[in-house]
Specification:
single chain; 322 residues; alpha/beta; Rossmann fold; seven-stranded parallel β-sheet; five-stranded parallel β-sheet; 12 strands; elongated
C-alpha cells in the first residue's frame, strides 16, 4: 500500500492546487483530497499523514497516522486537544515563513514611536500643524534598548533589523540557548521581570501557549519604564488588554503598538482605538507576498522528508502548542 497524505477539509482553490502539485512532484505519495468530513472519515483509517485540522472524532480512527502538518504557524487555541497531544503523531507547523514581513512591521512600530508619529498622526487627521518641543518626542535609537520576548525566527529578524539601527538588543526565549546576530544578551523566561525595567521597547513575538496566556499583565507593565513602549505582534491572548489600558491611563508606559488582540476584530467601542500613544493595525503584521508559495514549499519539503524517513521540519512540542 503506498504512503498516503490526506488533505483534510475544508478545501480551497489553494489547497486543491497544492494537492495537484504534490501529486506531480511526488508520484510515490498518494494524495487524498477530502472535500467533506464524510470523505475524511472514510479515508483517515488508512492515511499515513495529513494536512489541516484533525478533529478528535477523526483522530480516534487514524490508526496509521504518523505526521500531521498544521495549516498555520500557530493554530488557534483548541487545535492541540488532549487527544492530539496524547496521540503518537508528529505535528509540524508553518513557522519561519513570516520572518521578513513581521520583522519589518515591528520596525515600523519602533520607528513610528521613535519619531513621535503617535503624536503627529492624530494631528494630521485634525489638520493641525503643531510640533512637539525641540529635542523632545524623539528616541535616539543608538541609545535605546529593545527587549525581544521570543527570539525565534521572527524575533531574530527583528533583532537583526533593530541592531542595524544601532539599538542595544536583549532577549528572552524558552528554547534558544545561543544569541542570534544582533542580540547582545539572551536569557530564559525567568529573567523577564528583571529585564523589563531596562527596555525602551518591549516587543512580544511569542505564540499563545499555556505558558504565555495573559503573562503580560499589570504587574509587568508597572515594571517597565514610564517612557517605554510595548509592541505585540505575536498573539492577542498573551496580553491582558484591560491591564494594558489601565497602565496606559496611569502613565505607567508611554504607548503601545498592537497588531493582535484577545478579541478580534477589536470592538469599535474599545478604549484602545482612541487612547493617546496607541498605534493599531488589524492583525496584518504577517501580510506580504510569497506566503502561499512558502507554505507549499514547507509542505513539499516535509512530504519528501516523510517519504525518506528523515527528520521533519518545524516539529511542534504538542503540549506547549509550538
Amino acid at each position: 500500500m503506498p504512503t498516503s497524505l490526506l488533505m483534510l477539509p475544508p478545501q480551497t482553490p489553494t489547497t486543491r492546487a497544492w494537492a495537484s502539485r504534490l501529486a506531480a512532484a511526488l508520484p510515490e505519495l498518494a494524495i487524498v483530497v477530502a472535500e467533506t468530513e464524510a470523505d475524511a472519515a472514510r479515508a483517515v483509517g488508512e492515511t499515513d499523514a495529513a494536512f489541516g485540522t484533525m478533529p478528535d472524532a477523526l483522530l480516534r480512527d487514524a490508526r496509521r497516522l504518523r505526521w500531521l502538518q498544521a495549516p498555520q504557524a500557530a493554530p488557534p487555541a483548541g487545535y492541540y486537544t488532549s487527544a492530539l497531544i496524547a496521540h503518537p503523531v508528529v505535528v509540524t507547523n508553518f513557522r519561519e515563513i513570516y520572518n521578513d514581513h513581521i520583522g519589518a512591521h515591528i520596525m515600523a512600530f519602533v520607528l513610528a514611536f521613535a519619531r513621535g508619529f503617535q503624536h503627529y498622526l492624530p494631528r494630521q487627521l485634525r489638520r493641525e500643524w503643531r510640533r512637539e518641543p525641540l529635542d523632545t518626542g524623539v528616541i535616539h535609537l543608538p541609545e535605546a534598548t529593545a527587549l525581544i520576548v521570543g527570539v525565534g525566527g521572527i524575533g531574530a529578524e527583528a533583532a537583526r533589523l533593530a541592531a542595524a539601527f544601532g539599538m542595544h538588543v536583549i532577549g528572552v526565549d524558552p528554547r534558544r540557548r545561543e544569541a542570534p546576530p544582533g542580540v547582545l544578551k539572551l536569557d530564559g523566561p525567568d529573567a523577564l521581570d528583571a529585564l523589563l525595567p531596562l527596555a525602551d521597547f518591549v516587543i512580544l513575538t511569542v505564540p499563545h501557549t499555556p505558558a504565555t496566556e495573559g503573562f503580560m499583565n499589570r504587574t509587568r507593565f508597572q515594571r517597565m519604564k514610564r517612557s517605554a513602549f510595548f509592541i505585540n505582534i505575536g498573539r492577542g491572548m498573551t496580553t491582558r488588554l484591560d491591564d494594558l489600558v489601565a497602565a496606559l491611563r496611569a502613565g505607567e508606559i508611554a504607548g503601545a503598538g498592537l497588531d493582535v488582540f484577545d478579541q478580534e476584530p477589536l470592538p469599535a467601542d474599545h478604549p484602545l482605538w482612541t487612547m493617546p500613544g496607541v498605534l493599531i493595525t488589524p492583525h496584518t503584521a504577517g501580510h506580504g507576498p510569497f506566503l502561499d508559495d512558502r507554505r507549499f514549499q514547507v509542505l513539499l519539503d516535509n512530504c519528501r522528508r516523510f517519504l525518506a524517513g528523515e527528520p521533519l521540519r518545524n516539529v511542534v512540542d504538542k503540549a506547549s502548542w509550538f
